[in-house]
């Protein structure tokens, strides 16, 4: 092997190593303000599907202080919470509603976070958990026919360092 070929091979190995090292780590999370903005936009888009099917809809749109969460003492996360009651529970199917809401999040780049499906569909209750791995957001969609609130949408960011 000539010296020039060895140098080229070594240079190629270094380039490959640098590329692999740069791509092998997890991407940086978006800034908290950006993640919170996406959380609210996605939550509002999902809540829009509730329309006339739900009454008394209340929303917390990530503007309040951090709730009790599993973040460390110097960290915080933001939540989007929407709750309401079926206008006519006898005409509603929780599984169908959660499927519709889930479809909206899937169209926005979220993925199913599979939990044991047998635990998620019980009688008149349906639950779905979806995650956006790039924005690091999680949504939990919950609907039930028998007790109130009938519909709950909870979205959350990951934990971020507390400012100040």
Structural summary, described in words:
With 164 residues, the chain is of the alpha+beta class. The chain has one domain. It contains four helices and nine strands. The chain has helices at 3-24, 32-48, 94-107, 117-120; strands at 54-61, 75-76, 79-86, 111-112, 121-122, 125-132, 137-144, 151-156, 160-161. Strands 1, 3, 4, 5, 6, 7 and 8 form a seven-stranded antiparallel sheet that branches. Strand 6 (125-132) and strand 7 form a beta hairpin. Helix 2 crosses helix 3. The protein is globular and about 50 Å long. It starts with a helix and ends with a strand.
Task: Walk me through the topology.
Blueprint: H1 3-24, H2 32-48, E1 54-61, E2 75-76, E3 79-86, H3 94-107, E4 111-112, H4 117-120, E5 121-122, E6 125-132, E7 137-144, E8 151-156, E9 160-161
Antiparallel strand pairs: 1-3, 2-9, 3-8, 4-6, 5-6, 6-7, 7-8
Helix pairs in contact: 2-3
